[in-house]
Structures are given as structure tokens and as C-alpha cells.
Design goal:
By secondary structure, this protein is an all-alpha fold. The protein is built from six helices and two strands; from the N terminus they run βααααααβ. It has a two-stranded antiparallel ribbon.
């Protein structure tokens, strides 16, 4: 095994940053500005599958989009790069948590400039109400947060692990 110092430093710094996001997702991150247009594109892409999937498609696509890059890097056997991008997947899941956890109170300012309680359309309020889970908002949001945080922890461990690489493993 050979240690790649720049990769290790980058992995540690990114891990600390993304673990901070997991600790307090409500604070947001620079990637929130990347997630939003991807989320909105997901609504357009999933529109062909009906209203419910169109509404869910925003959150689904904002997680799938970085996941595709993770898959690409795994396919290329660039596991370090896959682990780094997996941090983004975890952050994106936590970004979905912020939205989902607001479903019952609807206090987030939406892209319309209004909160859901002011008449703006709130995806997660619609989805949880549609599936009879609005009363379980905290449970659903808790599961989402657990998955996002776990993804970041796994990605952090993997990125640090793959900072140590055999010379023969170069792709």
C-alpha cells in the first residue's frame, strides 16, 4: 500500500466538511445551489410518469444525478473518486431531508418565493399527504436523515481508505 498524501488531505478535509453538513443540515452548503436546478430538472424529466412521480422526481433526481457519477467512477475502477462524489450523494439526501422535514409545518421559502403555508406548492407536503404519511413526517424525515448521514460516513471512510493505494492499482 502506498499513501497518497494530497488525496488523503483532500479526503480528510472534505470528510470534515460533509460531516459538519450531516451534523446540521439546516445550515446548508455550497452544493445546495447545485442541487436546486437538478431538483427542478427532475420534475421535468419525471413528468411523463404522472403527477405523483413528477412531484417526487425532483427529490429522486437530485439524488440519482450524483449517484450516476459515483457509478461511472466505480465502473472506471476509480474508487477514490467514487467515494468523494458519494459525499455529494449524502449531502443531496440531507438536502431532501430539509425539504421533507418541513412537510407538515411548511415554513421553508420555496422557489416561488413563498412558504408552503403562504400558498406555495410544497412537494413533500403533497407526497406525504398523498400516501397518508403527513402525520409521520418526523419519522419519514428521520429515515431520510439517517440514510444521508450514513452515506456521508461511509463515503468518508472509503475516501480515506482509498487514499492508500497500491502502485499497481493505477488505472
Amino acid at each position: 500500500m502506498k499513501l497518497n498524501i494530497p488525496k488523503l488531505i483532500f479526503a480528510v478535509l472534505f470528510s470534515i466538511y460533509f460531516l459538519w453538513i450531516a451534523y446540521d443540515p439546516m445550515e446548508g452548503s455550497f452544493l445546495d445551489h447545485v442541487d436546486l436546478p437538478i431538483h427542478e430538472t427532475g420534475h421535468l424529466i419525471f413528468r411523463v410518469f404522472g403527477q405523483t412521480m413528477m412531484i417526487a422526481g425532483g427529490s429522486i433526481f437530485q439524488v440519482i444525478f450524483p449517484g450516476v457519477f459515483v457509478g461511472y467512477f466505480v465502473w472506471q475502477r476509480s474508487y477514490y473518486s467514487a467515494a468523494i462524489v458519494l459525499l455529494w450523494v449524502g449531502q443531496s439526501i440531507l438536502n431532501v431531508w430539509v425539504y421533507a422535514s418541513d412537510a407538515d409545518v411548511m415554513q421553508l421559502v420555496l422557489t416561488s418565493g413563498m412558504t408552503g403555508s403562504e400558498g406555495g406548492f410544497h412537494d413533500w407536503n403533497y407526497l406525504l399527504d398523498h400516501f397518508g404519511l403527513l402525520g409521520s413526517t418526523r419519522t419519514v424525515a428521520g429515515i431520510i436523515r439517517f440514510i444521508g448521514t450514513s452515506t456521508i460516513i461511509v463515503a468518508s471512510v472509503m475516501s480515506i481508505y482509498f487514499s492508500f493505494k497500491n502502485v499497481d492499482d493505477e488505472v
